[in-house]
Amino acid sequence: VLLFVFIAFLIAFSQPMIKKTSALEEENRRKEIIIIYQSRQAKIGEMVGNITHQWKQPLNNINLIMGNLSDDYMHGELTAGVLRDYVEKTQKITRMMSETIDSFNKYLKPEDGPSMFSPVTVIDAALQLMTDPLRRNNINVETEADCGLTIPGYPNGFYHVILNVMTNAIDASCLIPQDERLIRISVYSTA
After folding, report:
1. How crowded is residue 45: how many other Cβ atoms within 10 Å of its Cβ?
2. How far apart are CA 144 and CA 180, in angstroms?
3. Quick check: helix, strand or coil at residue 183?
4. CA 188 to each of CA 19, 139, 191: distance values in angstroms, whole numbers, following the listed order
5. Angle 176-181-186 from CA coordinates, rounded to 5°
6. What is this structure's pTM?
7. CA-based diameter of the chain, in Å?
């Protein structure tokens, strides 16, 4: 009988504790989701900032081309060949800008599952986005890679890892003399 009373006592008093523990676990899960979301938003903000910096120079170049085009026209120096050169330069610049946005969009999309991908292609895309911060911080990048290598995995996740590593390297670069700032990337198969 005493055992029965003890078990009933434990059951009666453990129910509120179980409910409180479940509520705390749920609250912790919600907080973790919020932290992950905020981290992702911060990374997206950084990427947009990188794109903004990467687009400033090409936009300035297009503006200069348009000014030169106008000046050549005003001075009667605009020939078909000069016009063609200006158009080709502008098209090249806008293609590069479009590729930057396409790359950005591609790596923001959620992945359905793992796939075979080229780590070199993903690294190149991440480096393209990081060009301006690397240049501003006087950091050289050397890449040694097996360009034919493909691996199974999540290319978008890998892209974000590379961006995080590059961002951390840029942040840490302030501790290194400017003439010694180098990031060396090696991609090879161990199989």
Report:
1. 10
2. 19
3. strand
4. 52, 23, 9
5. 125
6. 0.57
7. 111
